[in-house]
Amino acid sequence: MTTTPLVGDIEPIVPAAGGTARATWRSFRTEPLGLVALGVLLVLVLVAVLAPVLTRYPSGYGDHVLAPPTGAHPFGTDALGRDVLAEVVWGTQQSLLVAIASSLIAIVFGTLVAVVGAYFRRLDGIVGLVVDLVLSLPVLPLMILVAALVGPSTATIILVVAAFSWPEVTRLVRSQALTVVHLPYVDAARLMTSNPAWIIARHIVPAVKPVIVVSVVVTASRAVLSAAGLAFLGLGDPSTWSWGRILYEAQQSGAMSSAWWLTLFPSIAILALVLSATLLSIAYNDARNPRNRRR
Amino acid sequence: MRLGRGVLTIWFAVTVTFLLLRLLPGDPAQAVASPTMTAETRAALLAQYGLDKPLIVQYGIYLGQLLHGDLGLSFTQSIPVTTVLFERLPWTLLLTVTALVLTVVVGIPLGVLAASHRGRLLDKVVQVVGVTGQSIFVPSVGVLLLFAFGLMLRWLPIGGAYDVGVYGVAWYGSVAEHLVLPALSLMLVQLGSYVLTMRSTLIDALGEDYVTLARANGLPYRRILWRHALRNALLPTTTLIGLQLGFLVGGAVLTETVFAYPGIGRGIYEAVTQLDFPVLQGAFLFLALTVVVANMLTDIVYGFLDPRVKSA
């Protein structure tokens, strides 16, 4: 489920000198959707950090089983009488952790493969082939296979999602890196040093940075969906609350279709996180592109 | 060339599966033989499944068996994995193909509509719907539809693929009825990418010189839009089908789980809960095979749309 193409096309832009970050921010500030998305993400991060303050960790049994939302339980209770609000709040922590950790691993690895491949042309053919092959496999079934074999835990989920997300990063970064390595200033750098690592770190990585920023967001939001999918199939960490686990337990207890609050609230949480990440990447892309800047 | 690539992808899928199964901690040896057995029984069992041989020999045997269409026996049902999967494959194909056709039939006109109303309210609405559609979690849509149309309105059945004890024409009717909600869920999560891709490529196409020429020649706008620009803009959308196939299959696994639909995805779910590794591995191969075949079909369609590709 990780092959949805990007919303906006990333246009190759010749890297400009310093000061672009400020211009991007100035342009970004005028995008209401982007600001709202950023706000939602910040709220979610706050909720995750403050989870222990906001609610008690949901465990054990409650008195009111499958109670619809009321003042005491704004999101209702589940089949064991636990507070759904608390489950969603604690689930935020897990979802953000998985999203950030797995996308970081995927980004670092994917970018490394892409820039090294683009710089050493002989490796690029292999990189392109491997990426194409991995991308043509159905990713969620593959993740299911691995998660089932290794056994469910948060570390497994993070590694599994990362392991199947990097090819998408490589695909995005590679196309940008390939245009950059042919630019004259890279040739000039080759004349100055024979150390490829230095050229890659100093000239190629900064040039593909915008693509990396966008892929971080895209990979992270896909990681949320993948992790939720695994948890929904019962392959999540059984000892930690996650949004997918709430849905999984709702289905296991047979209450999924009658107790609508069990599905609705975690679903809204997933949508809020993924949608705001997507909108943020679109707004960033627009803001970065001088052609789209008003004034 | 196309065939060679397909074979390469399948070989890759087979090898990845083999290596994952043998090298990851939960290897088949542990699933087949339990630690409480005596050493002899364990050794005998492992030998029976060929798990005592070196990895490379196992790999050879595994490939040989696959070439004979032998995917092994299901751990839990003691029937060949192929039998289990062939019962399920038609349902998954029915579901995914229906969803894909629906997506294309709804997505392309929506994208055209947005592109031809660029910058206006309609365009913005379509864009918002598209971006939101891309961010939805498949089970969320599934359960929502199930709740609304299955439980509240009681228009449609809430699970399964057909009614038991119905024959003839009525059986096809019940199959169609059971297909509506799963196919709709799968369509909704896919639609966004198609609409947005269609929109942006069509906007690009409308800015091309041949469109300006056609307008200068006095051709009606509708004709230019639907016949000239659309044909060119369809190419990236066709590529998108290929890119989205893996995602479609992943979505099918989740959709089938929500609706208890008896396809391969539901089979995967059951195999996971029962730790039935041969079925899991076979199901993955079937899905990889489906994706590869569908990719080749997309390539052929692409050739029809763009004759330059065919001659090259």
Can you tell me about this structure?
The complex is a heterodimer of chains A (295) and B (312). Chain A is mainly α. Chain A is built from twelve helices and no strands. Chain A is elongated and about 75 Å long. The N terminus of chain A is likely disordered. Chain B folds into two domains: 66 residues, no CATH class; 187 residues, Orthogonal Bundle (MetI-like fold). In chain B, helix 7 packs across helix 10. Chain B is mainly alpha-helical and 312 residues long. The N and C termini of chain B lie close together (12 Å). The model of chain B has no long low-confidence stretch (mean pLDDT 81). At the A-B interface, helix 6, helix 10 and helix 12 of A face helix 1, helix 6, helix 7, helix 8 and helix 10 of B.
CATH architecture of chain A: Orthogonal Bundle
Mean pLDDT of chain A: 80
Distance between the ends of chain A: 39 Å
Cα shape of chain B? globular
Q: How big is the Rg of chain A? A: 22 Å
CATH topology heading of chain A: MetI-like fold
The domain tally of chain B reads 2
